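quick one, 184 residues, struct below
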Amino acid sequence: MYRTLTLIIVLAALGSFRSTAAQDRSSFDGFKFVDASGNIRKPTDYRDMYYMLGSWTVLDPKGNQMHFTYASQGAAEYYRRNKKFADGTVLVKEINGTDHAQMTTGDSNWATNTNAWFVMIKDAKGRYPNSPLWGDGWGWALFKSDAPDKQVATDYKKDCLGCHQPAKADDWIYVKGYPVLHSK
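---
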């Protein structure tokens, strides 16, 4: 009887652990970074808590950049299953300067200082229709290195859509550049 009771308790605990672990794999609570007026706050722990979707290199005579994009937990898995981002998904794109040097492997480039962060939160319900920073299914925010906690975008149509226009058919996100979003 004691062994049976112990086994039942262990199995119940494992079942509870499994369901908790499954819940922890997804985090679509991006609205915790939004105040009542629709102002977006940059997640402070995105490098530790989010998954890296991928990176880009932008070659520019004014200064090359490396872009690193992070997504809230479960975003890639949800996207692969549904071919869209879940409501509340958070994407953080970090824009870095670069440096380079000749190494034994060749001309190497690496990321240096972070210059800016773009934060997007998927809003499938249109929660902030009167905000100039919410529309086309997303909340849009820009933070610069000289004031990393101050959101500086004023109108997503002017400040954001110009760069995202080529990705309009893919919900404004350059999904082709993120292999983790495609079937394995």
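Residues 11 and 17 are 10 Å apart (CA to CA).
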